[in-house]
Amino acid sequence: MTTTGTRHPGERPPGGAGARGGVPARDVPAAGGAGPSPAPRRPPEVETAVLRTPVPGRTPSSPSTSSGPSEQSQSAPPRRYAEPATVVMPGIPPAARPRSTVGDVVSSRFPEARVARPGPPAPPPAPPVPLRWRWYSPVLVLLALALLPVAAATTDLDALDGWGLAKVLGPAAWAALACAVGACIAELWSPRPRVPMLATATGVLVLCSTGLPSVVEPVARFTTSYVIVGFVDAIAGDGVPALDVDARFFWPAFFAQWAWFRDAAGAGDLDVVLRWFPPVVVLVWTIGVYALARSMLGGTRAPWVAAWLFVGLNWIEQDYFSPQAIGIVLLLTVLTFALGPLATRRTDAAGVPGWPPPHPGAARLPLLRRWMVALMTPPNRPTLPPRQLLLIYFCAALCLIALAPEHQLTPFAIIGQLTLLTVVGRFRGRGLVFVAVLALTVYFIVGARDFWTGQIGLLLGSGDGGNALQTGIADRLAGDTGQVAVKLLRIAVPGLTWLLAIAGAWVYWRRRRDLVPIFLAAVPMAFAAVQSYGGELFLRIVLYGLPVLTILGADALRTYARRKPGREKKLAVGMLVLFPVLVLIRGGNEAYMVVTPEDITMTRAAFAETPPGSKIVPLDDTGPYAMQGIGTYEREGDAVTCKDNAKKTPDDYTRCILDDEPDVLLVYTSTEKQGVVLDNLPPGWSRQVVDQLVATGEYRVRYQNGFNAVVVKTTPTVVSGPAAAAPGGGN
Amino acid sequence: MTADGWVWVSLGLLLALLGARAWVVETGHATLGRTPVKVKVLTGACGLAVALVVGLVTANGGARLVWMVLHPVEAQAQQEAAKAAERAAKASAALAPPAAPAPTPTAPAPPPR
Predict the structure, then answer these.
(1) Most buried of the four, A246, A332, A357, A680, by CB within 10 Å?
(2) Whole-model pTM?
(3) Which residues fall in a compositionally biased region of kind Low complexity (chain A) (predicted)?
């Protein structure tokens, strides 16, 4: 048995044996007795001896009392597997055994061991935890939860500007966040951290940081989430994706899934789901990161730190209601399987990682030859029963197959990461890579045929890396002071994350001689070759690597804290700073990402009062304009002639709209604020556009309240009957 | 069944074979340096299924996709031409005069005598 808990080719399958087995596998006769004897191997590191109860007339040290293969074959029929780990302490009566021992756990599973094999003596009882440590975390958690309604009531969303949500949050919101951070730190600092309490504190931390917009805003934010819910609405109507409307419909699994949920629940809309989706999905991601960190770091505290670091550094707002959010859940599931229960190492027969020379003193094989031998050598079996292994294979394969129609990029990320792990022999189940590649290929060629036959340019990309950098980073550094500051922070945080992860990779290398984790994080960077995906590509690159980066970062922080007592206090202060910065960065676009209930009501009314086939466009791409009507109403997402570079002044907007001639124009307060904080337009510019349109006589105002307005054509293009029930579903 | 349907069926068959092979490998006894016959048979069957899937996928678009990837300029020109033709067809349909009204039904012919 190796330190990674793997079995060697000659060992028996598990089922009670393995690292926890009392009798080494080599002592058990092979089934049928025909198998070759395994090669000599290094003595196991963690194995326990089985000592029988002294037999009268024999001394315990007599060779005949040892449970060697000869005696076992004579006294008992050969067993298929080795027996569980049990250490018998002669002379201790069973009744005197303490309850919480390994022997008890084993004996409950193996009745024959119950009487004869008492467990080892219990360790001395740990000193009692002072009462205050039991109450710190629960009190802080309750305090944080109690402050959230106050935070929602004291946040003035009308005052949003370029600094975003952080500027308008009341003291209660910051206090709630501080309490949540304090609850995590208090529990981690206690002498014996409780896992349920840590999990609860983590959930509250996510709610008070990532979920803060969901708490203080009455409805879901972010225009794109309403676009996605519009897709769900379109597919819920007749179950057919509107392939000619948007290329994302070629990957319709997420939309179909939620259309099914909506119909099955009898819900008319997904407003509540939309609002609470980000904190819930981030919590699920955090569970995945915690599971990964447990496998990679071990320990009881470091995995939680990794999970909190992930929450604190995840400013990339890809957790809204979207296919990639669920795609990352599936990715983390597969990665957790691969680095957890399926994890293994490719070793030689003696259990030594790598490939030693054929005999002592022999010259080392050439590097290429060593790589080839390593590549061709199957990794060892993990110490799991076969049925558990098969169940894990099944679940992992299901996730990989589900990813193919779910999202465009995520399958490539997990295939890249699994391929790396396969090449270095770190997980059992290389066939999973084959399943993933096969599912992706067949789905893309057959299922998404209309996509690549009609848009081969999108598939091949322009190959212009500089342009992608310009679009992804440089072009986004626009807006007023607050906007630029927030965006600079967004560039700085991934850089610091990578620096911390590189330090962690160094620590990991020093401890385990292993560079695989940092390469796992780097694999998604190969996406940079796919330039056609657009500016969001860089967000995805950071996001796909973030789980592993934060785990490495936690390793670096653990080493830092262990070097000198008292450093953990500095880390606690760092955590107290990190989460407010996260709120600032994530909420930086809130001025034009916020959606109000009035926006939703106005949009629904506009669709209800407009006949199908009409053209409904927003003044700019903000607000919930796309929440319904896809495939029923004509919509270009923006006035088609209004390219971004043409929109400089309100007059340009007016000209573009007059050229485009939409039937209905939707204007939101968020549109007005986007123009002010991002495009440096004068305040009131959207009202000016509406006035100019009305002045031409071609348009009239159907509804107006503040900057919100519905402007309709005086002479509508489509005059067929009312459209109140036209859009599929009830969004 | 359509050609696409056959692709999906063959993929399902391959996945089932891979599952069966995994079952045999993981529940069987590991023997150093020897592959059980059942595993060899299933590996061969998987190989055949892979060949079937690859063949069907190639015939149902794979070959065309490879050609388009290898000849991007020609492929994009073809797609642009197809889109232009489609737009022209739509425009001509929009400009065409409305169809003539259906003829009024004539009186039924008298029954033959």
Answers:
(1) A332
(2) 0.79
(3) 22-31, 54-78
